[in-house]
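Changelog excerpt

This revision adds worked examples to the README so contributors can see how folded entries look when concatenated. The first example is reproduced verbatim below.
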Amino acid sequence: MGLAKQIVVYLYVDCFLYGANTRSAVRSDTSLTQATLTQETTRQLQPWLSYTTQTGATTIAVGYAASTGGRQLLAGMPTGMRTEEQQVRSELQTLVTKHIQLAGEVTHDVHVSGGFRQDFGFNARITIVL
């Protein structure tokens, strides 16, 4: 198997569409007024570069994710909430038996606006194929 067959580039593109929330409200000092909360489309791009060992049992990947959009409006006025995130990722997947795969992913947010920044994230997965 040549090196070119062991390296793969993946590109995922997502769009999140939101409906209007007509059960929202705006509170003033003296009253509560019904208002519609809307959110613009959020777009996400996720490129990955992966390398699979010659045995095919282990894959190592590095990736990047960027989300943008999602600006929220309440009664037509911006709330200040929006989606703007950039993250680097690395992942290791390995077959420990022909029926069990273990995977671990480490993530780091390099830029976040309108949300919480995660300096370190870890996701683990066990897949059992019967």
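The second example, added in the same revision:
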Amino acid sequence: MNLTPIKAMLKAILGPYYEVIKDYILFPMYDVIADLWTPDENLFIPYLIMSILISYPVYRTQIAAGESGSLRHFLRFLIPARIYKHKSAILDYKFYIVNSYVSKILFGWILIGSSNLIGSSINSTLNHVLGKPGPQWQPTATSRIVYTLLIVVVFDLGAYLAHYLEHRIQVLWEFHKTHHSAEVLTPITTFRNHPVDEVLENIFISVFVGSLTAVFSYLYPSGIEQYKIINVSVLMFLYFFVANLLHSHVWLSYGWVLNHIFYSPCMHQIHHSSEQRHFDCNFGRVFSVWDKIFGTLYVPREKEELRYGISNNEHLAFTSVWSCYFVPFKKAFAHLKPQSSELNTTVINDSKDVL
């Protein structure tokens, strides 16, 4: 979509205020709409279409006896009003729009290009420690395949570790509750992430991906590229076909064997369950092997009925966009205060013992 004429018109109208309004008001909203035609975003229209096509055989297996399986019935299955009109889903829609502004204004400088900066720093270190130039290898089909696979592997490992810490460290969990406070799951729930969550995950992913690209840049100084489809890693392109089903009511399992290798949508739906048997499991994104290695894997043998939200009805504290942002800060600080008091008490008692 060519926006040049529109930009020129706005610049003429707004004059010196154009840059400020463009950066902080117009472009964030444009980013929301642009997700529909941006290949590295979940909401890219072809990915949504693929999600619909994949959902159809799932729907066919769940048709009750006597039902026709008509297009109208399929659409009711795909977009049920009880989910997409739920107050939690409506909050998702609001948060998605507002967070587009918040992320750009507060954290854009962190989220943009950080893996490149890390990669450049590590590459400079390698040149200094191991000597320059490096091996001067030339990329081959095999090396490109390996690079394409490893990029996804380290990306997924970084995402797994960040997600694991968000559940296991109480202060971080308070921010991650914003995401888990959703009472129903839709593709827009993907974006119900507190900015603190986004920064943490971006740091982990950037460190792992940046480190790998630095190593390959040292080995292949002339450059090496992943195999891509419409400028997206071919493996991530395939992952995006099902990515929108992770946050949905569509129960899609890859089967007992493949679920131990690849992260299927039903496994993430289980991750969102508020039932105790599902706590702290299935932290992966693309592969489930990390969960297997670290002992956090839960693979269902059959479809399970799930209830979403946070245990003890904590999700009821997240009823507005405002609360999604600020309740986590309030609760996180509450965890830090007792620790400080306990530390001070310990120090005082130790001092008395010494005296």
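Reviewer comment on example two: The mean pLDDT is 85. The beta strands are 228-229, 232-233.
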